[in-house]
Write a structure and sequence with these properties.
This protein has 16 helices and 15 strands. The protein is an alpha/beta fold and about 400 residues long. The protein has two domains: about 190 residues, Rossmann fold, CATH 3.40.50; about 180 residues, Rossmann fold (3-Layer(aba) Sandwich). The strands form four sheets. It has a six-stranded parallel β-sheet, with helices on both faces. Strand 3, helix 2 and strand 4 form a beta-alpha-beta unit. It is globular, with a radius of gyration of 22 Å. The protein starts with a helix and ends with a strand.
Length: about 400
């Protein structure tokens, strides 16, 4: 999503700048409409393709989570990496943007640097959370870092990375216009009952680890509630159906935001979905579980006091965190019972989430995060070269 938003913002800026001179190796320069000068290729999904990116590699092929889980996928990832670099050598882009996915992207950035291609890192890796020594990779291979959390700018600048906070892209999201009653009819949900949104993750491995306990919590809450399960683009609905089984109150829905906006609360796996819940102002319990080996190898490296991003942004615990052995159906239900009814606990959480949203928007709230990022990109883009966008 971040890559698609950035492409659209870049296209808007190019269209506003009139005509420019455009040339390529062995061909004369000519004045062409600016909106045709930017060409995008690399790694992405459906949204990137719809925005105009030639996706050589589908991002689903790189959607692996966990230290132990990635080992079996290394040969495939290595082949995809070399396919991408061969294409870079053929097209010779003037600029590369890498987005998130540090294990893949710092290697891409290194190859770009060897070829003299400036690199912008959009959504910089969360090296402040763990493996802080890897900041040296950004310092060495990245021309400019664009960060989406307010505390990240100082962290990276203090360590020699030219970083700029541009705001979080999700902070620009508007509350969906669909009315609750209309949504209920559309998805056959009982509008008279309170709804709880379940978001177990965007990768199959995450869903397998997180959804079973969520379903047990839903069963414990019982028939007084309806449960909405947004289907991530990277997840097959039949795969979810097999995990759900015959539990009748679980409704698979196509989008997260309307579900969150109309839900009384959520059970949300750690990640981007927690930011979406905060933007919608929906109280939730953050949960997460990985394999025992991944947790054992990674836990000691974590350098932050909270797992939930909203808690890190706020600098305090706004939402409860249930991680690994603490993530049980019983614990989830206990925390939900604190925030489902009206009262001081629920009100305090809603106020805290509103504060997080304000911080994510940044000081220039009249400008979208993607547009602020596009300003930086356009300033670094060589005028005589094509543009390359890479989003694993």
């Amino acid at each position: 999503m971040y890559g698609a938003q950035l492409i659209e913002a870049l296209q808007r800026r190019a269209a506003q700048s009139g005509t420019v001179e455009l040339g390529s190796a062995g061909k004369p320069k000519a004045a062409v409409p600016a909106q045709t000068q930017l060409e995008f290729f690399g790694v992405g999904g459906d949204r990137m393709r719809a925005a105009g990116c030639d996706t050589l590699i589908d991002s689903k092929e790189l959607a692996v989570v966990g230290i132990s889980e990635i080992l079996s996928h290394l040969p495939k990832i290595w082949r995809l990496f070399h396919r991408l670099i061969r294409e870079v050598d053929q097209r010779k882009p003037g600029l590369a943007i890498v987005i998130d996915s540090p294990a893949f992207n710092w290697r891409v950035a290194r190859q770009m640097q060897k070829r003299g291609v400036p690199v912008i890192y959009y959504v910089c890796p969360q090296f402040w959370a763990w493996r802080q020594g890897r900041v040296r990779l950004l310092r060495k291979y990245v021309t400019r870092g664009l960060v989406i959390f307010p505390f990240e700018e100082k962290f990276y600048r203090d360590r020699g990375v030219d970083a700029t906070f541009v705001g979080h892209p999700l902070a620009d999201l508007q509350r969906p216009a669909v009315a609750r009653q209309q949504y209920a009819i559309q998805h056959r949900v009982d509008a008279a009952k309170p709804w709880v949104t379940l978001m177990p993750g965007s990768r199959p491995k995450e869903v397998k680890m997180n959804l079973p306990a969520m379903l047990k919590a839903a069963a414990s809450l019982g028939a007084a509630f309806e449960f909405l399960l947004p289907v991530a683009p990277t997840i097959d609905s039949e795969f979810l159906a097999r995990l759900i089984g015959n539990q009748p109150a679980i409704h698979q829905v196509p989008e997260a935001l309307p579900a969150l906006a109309h839900s009384r609360a959520g059970i949300i796996a750690s990640g981007t979905a927690t930011i979406e819940a905060a933007i919608m102002g929906t109280p939730f319990v953050m949960v997460y579980r990985v394999s025992g080996l991944t947790y054992l190898l990674g836990r000691w490296r974590v350098k932050v006091p909270h797992f939930a991003m909203v808690n890190l942004i706020a600098g305090e615990q706004i939402v409860p965190e249930l991680v690994q052995q603490d993530f049980t159906a019983e614990n989830v239900v206990a925390r939900l019972n604190e925030i489902l009814p009206d009262g001081p606990v629920r009100s305090k959480m809603i106020a805290g989430l509103a504060g997080v949203k304000a911080r994510l928007q940044g000081s220039e709230q009249e400008m979208r995060a993607a547009d602020r990022a596009a300003e930086v990109v356009m300033g670094l883009l060589p005028p005589e070269r094509d543009f390359c966008g890479l989003e694993p």
